[in-house]
Design a protein that fits this description.
The chain folds into 2 domains: 140 residues, 3-Layer(aba) Sandwich (Rossmann fold), CATH 3.40.50.2020; 139 residues, Rossmann fold (3-Layer(aba) Sandwich). Helices cover 29% and strands 27% of the residues. The protein is an alpha/beta fold and 313 residues long. The protein is globular. The N and C termini lie far apart (45 Å). The protein has a 7-stranded mixed β-sheet, with helices on both faces. Keywords: ATP-binding, Cytoplasm, Kinase, Magnesium, Metal-binding, Nucleotide biosynthesis, Nucleotide-binding, Transferase. InterPro entries: PRib_PP_synth_CS (IPR000842), Pribosyltran_N (IPR029099), PRTase-like (IPR029057), PRTase_dom (IPR000836), Rib-P_diPkinase (IPR005946).
Amino acid sequence: MPYSVPDPKIFSCTQSQDLAERIAKAFGTDLGIVSFTRYSDGEFQPSFEESVRGTRVFIIGSTNPSSENLMEMLLMLDAAKRASARHITAVMPYFGWARQDRKDKPRVPIGAKLVAKLLESAGATRIITMDLHADQIQGFFEKPVDHLFASTIFLPYLKSLNLEDLTIASPDMGGSKRAYAYSKFLNSDVVICYKQRKQANVIDHMELIGDVTGKNVVLVDDMVDTAGTLTKAADLMMERGALSVRAICTHALLSGNAYERIENSKLTELIVTDSIPPKQKSDKVRVLSCADLFADVMHRVHHNTSISSKFLM
């Protein structure tokens, strides 16, 4: 008898349950059932409550800290491998530990590569993720990586604002490539912030390269953590004569007193995706869903069709 390809199955890690439900709905199916056994010391064990033998399995979960989120993804990948799934795709809207993409000083790990090797060892045969902190992380994998860009979500929203005298800004030198890519599609100018740090998450000095007088500025970054850089950049640009300052950041980590900083800053709004579940609500934070993007790409992957149209940058 000829072999028929079974329908794919989609499962979710606990931290991405809401997003996974939206992705599954957009895909046209229901989430698979996973149960968790938890021990009193904190150890946990996931279990697929339906057969995955011979199927394509998508496991959705962002790996933002705590490390339990990464461990949960690894255990679910291993469970799918040992249950004889045919293809196992780790769908990671946010790829955690990505800031450790190189040795920036002696005697430190390259955490992003370690995570890549762990995912492959656990059983992932493909990775789908969005806006990696550094493009080079794709090279840490021996398996296919579909690196999506949230620009496909943000650009239509920015165009809908109909902002005149638009200028795209990068909050640091490392993000200049991303800023130039956005400016190309929006036909706008670019300015760059130059910052110096004494330690992680602490800015010692910031300077602006470019003119923002009379401009509506949009800061572009891949993630926002403590919001120190964004809010300092927004305040600096308003002092230099900008009409308004918005920020688009794919991954909203928003740790520490980030929400308080955003509320007290001169940012008009912060636009993010739901790759990471929001910790609280804020009138200044607008969340755009990435569910349709991931559902579409997962559908194309399953049917072996091109996804190049999803790469605007």
